[in-house]
Write a structure and sequence with these properties.
Number of strands: 27
Strand order of the largest sheet: 5-4-3-2-1-10
Helix content: 25-40%
Distance between the termini: 69 Å
Largest sheet: 6 strands, parallel
Amino acid sequence: MTDLPYRDTALSAEERAEDLLSRLTPEEKAGQLTMYFYLGTGRPLPEDFDIESLPPEHRAFVDQPRQVEAAVAGGRAGGVLFVKDPALANRLQRWAVEESRLGIPLLFGYDVIHGLRTIFPVPVALSASWSPDVMEAAQTVAAREARAAGIHWTFAPMIDVARDARWGRMIEGSGEDPFLTSALAAAQVRGFQGDFGPDRVLAGPKHLVGYGAARGGRDYEDAEISDAELWNVYLPPFRAAIEAGAANVMSAYMDLNGVPASGNRRLLTDVLRGELGFTGWTVSDAGAVRSLETQHFARDRQDAAVRALHAGLDMEMTTFDPAYDHLPQALAEGRLGVEELDAAVRRVLTAKFRLGLFDDPYVDEGAAPGILAASAHRDAARTAAQQSLVLLKNDGVLPLDAAELASVAVIGQLADSKRDTLGPWVFDHDTRETVTVLEGLRARLGDGVRVEHAPGAGIVERVFPSPFDALDETVETTPADRDEDAEIERAVALAAGADVAVVVVGQRQNQIGEKASTSTLDLPGRQLEQVKRIAGTGTPVVLVVMTGRPVDLRWADGNVPAIVQAWYPGTRGGEAVASVLLGDVSPAGRLPFSWPRHVGQLPMIYAHLRTFEPEQRGTRYFEEESTPLYPFGHGLSYAEFRYTDLRVDSASIPVGGTAKVSVDVANTSARTADEVVQLYVHQRYGTSSRPVRELKGFERITVGAGASVTVTFELGPDQLRYWSAATGGFVQDATALDIWVGGSSTTPLTARLEVTEPDRDGAALAP
């Protein structure tokens, strides 16, 4: 077969794919559009194993690997997911390449969300760095480790804008703002894919689209989103990821405006390919094609397959019995055109050729251990965690001075939980490498300071267990037989006798993520009670919050002198927390979402419309302020920054023109530190009402002690156009713009810019 055109490396990926496509049977074409979960180890079942004695549902899972292996060897599988062992990947790949009729290699996909072996802070934490460079560097390391393990493709980045903190999967994204999410989406695509080299993986942005707007924050629920919100909020991150070169896009599970996203041609073809210009291939989320029947959208399994493919869904991800197995029959019955089928297969084959799989299908098993153990990767994880921590409150307790400390009480189960420090969505971690907050403080303070730990209040378990716990032997829980009262008493006594109490509170890693939405933002169990009692001892308290969503901190904000949002900081997270608490690093993380006071405020966003009686907005609830506890973009520093001389290079620009906005940022403190400079705009009038403030520029900068830096942003049509329901399309208005630049979304420093109508000769006219 070496003389076949598709084997000719001198031809382009497109030419090779076209030749190979012409040789496939309908069954082989359907196979290329199928990605299977692989639930096995690659080892055969014992000869004396009686599979028939198992209940049918158990038998199916035990027999699943054999079925997948048969499909691979028969050329009826395009990809496999959940394989992280390079030896197993090579074994499956050999069946595909050496036993199937045409030798088409498999794509191996995996959920590499925030690291493979080296675990970085969870994505919402990386987003809190407000640094595309930090995000790109993290995903470059993740890609290198994934490719070394035989993985070609990651189901990331997740770029769903999340505006309801009850939704568990907000932890995988970049928060509530489309501008920030877009910038970080592009950075992740660059980090994962690079130039499609041998140490990179294909990026698969997900979930198209509106998954984060599920009703009530309940995972998998339907979403109703207006066209204006769809185009202005939920689609911009996908546009940014596509412009950055994303090779793949994953569809969402839920119904969007009454049509399942995985069977929505308007979405997957007209919008994704027609409007956003996507040329890669699409894949369903797990089981989403079969779910079209469950959702009472499709009549039966064949109808689900035909409708998904017609909508523009190229590849089905499934565990059992693919719906796409019915495509050949649908083709024979005239329910499906060969051109439609070929278009999907062509896209999948082209991706495999672009990645070089036909020429080098196997992974170097010997190289994997060294790459996965690289110390530079762990250093990068520590740096990313340091840059992601957010100082929410500080009444002068931080930074701690090691020279003045004799004893530190570290309180909380999460303070020494290796598994919870990593966060969810990790599958190849080694908890022996994890540095907890307790370990980080002990290492940093050394033998000269007594650092003692009390687990204290337990963290109540989920009412409905996480399905992912069954895949993870390292999950930590609160012992059922513990004496809760005694443990809290011991924690309070330890804190009372210490110079400072570092109290770590939050949720376990399995209390957020997929299938981990919540009806409350309360701290689980008796953690708040414990914080109150420790604060009552008079010992200074530093509250370290380990969550991926905001929790109710109203009491803590009013009574605890220092609060640090540590997220789930990853493999070297404890070192990062210690370095911030002791002042080795000045915190510069900023919130990528508004932090509500209470769950009853949700959803809450900073970029709301002005609406009626805007001066009364903070009093909409009769019993409590209807404002966030901490605003979007908030974060404190150990340094002090002064913003001055906000200026625009022109008093007016025409529609389509660009203005430069500059500000001077002075570090008035005695230490070098990072600052995140943020630019917001508000359009005063036009075709549609516009939000009171919208992020349109940001830059993380380092400013030396006593130094000053000038930061300049551009404001032009890319930042100022928007989709209007009044016109059914994008517009840019002649209008007046309010501009703010500062350290959060509430910055007061403001300027103004007029946008005028151009005359016929291009000269600006007054509005």
